[in-house]
Amino acid sequence: MQLFLAHSEADGTLATAALEALAATMQLSEALGVPFTVGLIGDNPGPAADSLTACGAARILTVSGPAFGQARYATDAAAAEVLCRAAGASIITVPATSRWNRVLPGVAHRLGGRCDTHVTGLGAADGQPQVSRWFYRQRMEAVFTRRTRPWLLALEGGIATAAALGNRQAQGPAPIESIPLTLDAPRTQVTGFEAPAADQQTIRPDANLLFVTGAGWTKKQADGQVKVAAAEALILDFLRLSRASLGSTKSLVDLGGEGQAILPFLSHLNQVGQTGATPRHAKGLATCCHGEEPHTVGWRFIGERRAISLDANCGWARGKADILYVADAFAVLGKVNELLAQ
Ligand SMILES: Cc1cc2nc3c(=O)[nH]c(=O)nc-3n(C[C@H](O)[C@H](O)[C@H](O)COP(=O)(O)OP(=O)(O)OC[C@H]3O[C@@H](n4cnc5c(N)ncnc54)[C@H](O)[C@@H]3O)c2cc1C
Q1: What is the pTM of this model?
Q2: Which pLDDT band, with edges at 50, 70 and 90, does 173 fall under?
Q3: Residue pair 38/61 in contact by the 8 Å Cβ criterion
Q4: Looking at the domain assignment, is residue 154 inside a domain?
């Protein structure tokens, strides 16, 4: 038996990441010919459970209550453990949300199983599940299987198209069963969330475009002047108009730590590359960036790559970009913003 685990959102529904992981689970179940159960946790996972009764699951198990609506190790791990045991599952899949990534290794330990996180592909060969995962900072991809069961897998976002919850059931809708779980009062209380205002949040995983800034924005330009204020205005305008997600090179985010004038809305969280993030977007546009390997290795999961650099001999020109514009990014972005604003 396979088990798909998810937590419901505040409104009781499932997030896109969960529906993507569900789709990958359904494909694996079909490839292996093994049925799957759905396990849901949340304050009120009822709407999510109702939406899944026709997805082809054999059973839908829920652990519900106010304590399970909050992301907290003790309650999430206990709920996951009880659902895994109730389902008797040998392969357990979850969406790789921060909430699941935090508890999955602990749940695997409690069950005497093994866990793999950051799974970027799920398939079957010789009747066994096979997973893909990148190692050594996304430089090497391994495809492997394990004999240990239960095997718990955290599936990265974007590896499958979100499940369309049409009518797939063969023998009527899946029954929804509530699994009782009583815990001592948790010591950790969630008192609320703090999030930056929507227009200050520059990392947007759902955006179609990744817009990357490089150290060139802070370098002396053709007239001998540094134009950080102009760069800041152009970049913020572009982000506002395009709703792109903002990435950066390490050189640019490091400049802040060195006390130089930089773009204040950038932090190491924006850094893309070997020692940064490996985001997933349909398109990417690098500006004022040299396209060196430790940076471009973070572009592994970017579909179409374009770059604007003054240097016709930069790394992008050597096979790393689909299109390189040898041009002044200040001029290009000014024109692009003008067109976007129309
Ligand atoms: C172990 C290790 C790990 C690393 N990890 C990372 C990582 O995770 N991420 C990362 O980014 N780097 C990483 N680096 C650093 C990486 O090697 C590069 O030093 C860095 O990416 C260079 O940043 P850059 O392209 O922004 O700057 P630069 O190399 O300074 O390039 C600036 C570019 O801007 C261009 N330019 C200037 N003005 C304009 C203009 N007006 N219009 C258009 N173009 C212009 C210039 O021609 C130049 O090509 C790592 C290095 C090491 C050794």
Answers
A1: 0.77
A2: confident
A3: yes
A4: yes
